[in-house]
Amino acid sequence: MKQITDFKNKKVLVLGLARSGEAAARLLASLGAIVTVNDGKPFNENPSAQALLEEGIKVVCGSHPIELLDENFEVMVKNPGIRYDNPMVARALEKGIPVWTEVELAYLISEAQIVAITGSNGKTTTTTMIAEVFNHGGKSALLSGNIGFPASEVAVTATAKDTLIMELSSFQLMGINNFHPHIALITNLMPTHIDYHGDFDAYVEAKWNMQNRMTEEDFVVLNFNQDLAKELAQKTQAIVVPFSTTEKVDGAYLYDETLYYKNEAIMLAAEIGVPGSHNVENALATIAVAKLSGISNQVIKEALVSFGGVKHRLQYVGEIQGVKFYNDSKSTNILATQKALSGFDNAKTILIAGGLDRGNEFDELVPDIEGLKLMVVLGESAPRVKRAAQKAGVRTLDAKDIADATRIAFEQAQAGEFVLLSPANASWDMYKNFEVRGDEFIASFEELTLNNSR
């Protein structure tokens, strides 16, 4: 970690705790800052705040008093999920106080080079793929950022021999200033989080912030399946390295079922360890980053062949009596489920779908679900999902929860078929988050395994 003096004796407000806020507060205190933490959760129910207070950090809990901002803070570091129309954030901006996320802190102290990954879909899988390729090739890769390891916490122990493989959300990227990765990757850009950003243009602008400080010595890897990416390619000083499944490009591409990098054949698409056309895109993006980092074709192939996926993202759970189970609970929108289905034979697939009702219909999904053996439907959105199934000519059965849906799907399946949880909906009508939903699917599979062992 770089021993910087930028924050010595400067007053900094950390707004919102969770893991990233706690990490930021500790880091800032270690750098000599005068830190105040403000979190909405009451102090007696807030173990993180209690721990920070014991370490000598000032905490204000239970509310967000606007007058706190009269204390002449020089920087606010906010939790990425807190919106910019939040009264505390809006007031800070009015007062000219810079508002950052902890990603900026990570960059300022990091001795390690940074590979930054963002996008609408595929971020976590691609981030994990890249890290596994790096580590397989003997390069020390440290996962950080939106993937569950606060960037400012990981950067503390990273050395110049490491590479920070950093997954970043649009929320995090709105709060950067000097942040400067050596390689930046955007997997794809689709309309999402519009409730936070206001419109798609603002969302794209947040993602594109990632390359603001990059120079002609850096690289931006872009998905040339999208015309938007080709437009963005004209707006950066960095060297653009494209990837595509639809055309030969001066980067990574799919041709004749083979993955190439600049005319070098790397591997067959069918050899990737996880199914789906979206994972071909993820693999191509990974290949581009790996080649830019000096990793050999053989190492790349070996790592991608053995790649087993990410928990809750087309995760292979196991097999019971010839029926294979896949957990894609992280598919919380239609596009993600469309991509998941692209890797399966519909006639042999039972899809479990449904969840939070956001008021949208599922007509876009109709072409992708045609020919499915069965859909098991649950949650608030079940009536809308069933309407799409009816248009596609697919039979449906109702389930009360994920455990019930898993049991029903298995009872209807035969050897050689697949049970795929890919809900196309958020989980919040029945579950705290998609992880809890996916964990119930895994637990249900394990129970079925015990009950049906031969």
From TrEMBL:
Endpoints of the signal sequence: none
Main subcellular location: cytoplasm
Record-annotated membrane-spanning stretches: none
Substrates-to-products reaction catalysed: UDP-N-acetyl-alpha-D-muramoyl-L-alanine + D-glutamate + ATP = UDP-N-acetyl-alpha-D-muramoyl-L-alanyl-D-glutamate + ADP + phosphate + H(+)
Keyword Cell wall biogenesis/degradation tagged: yes
Domain Mur ligase central: 117-290
Annotated coiled-coil segments of the chain: none
Record key words, sorted: ATP-binding, Cell cycle, Cell division, Cell shape, Cell wall biogenesis/degradation, Cytoplasm, Ligase, Nucleotide-binding, Peptidoglycan synthesis
Chain residues that bind ATP: 119-125
Top-rank taxon, per record: Bacteria
UniProt subcellular location: Cytoplasm
Pathway this chain belongs to: Cell wall biogenesis; peptidoglycan biosynthesis
GO molecular function annotations of the record: UDP-N-acetylmuramoylalanine-D-glutamate ligase activity
Chain ranges of the Mur ligase C-terminal domain: 312-424
InterPro entries documented for this protein: Mur-like_cat_sf, Mur_ligase_C, Mur_ligase_C_dom_sf, Mur_ligase_cen, MurD
EC supergroup of this enzyme: ligase
Family the entry assigns: Belongs to the MurCDEF family.
Protein name in UniProt: UDP-N-acetylmuramoylalanine--D-glutamate ligase
Gene, per the UniProt record: murD
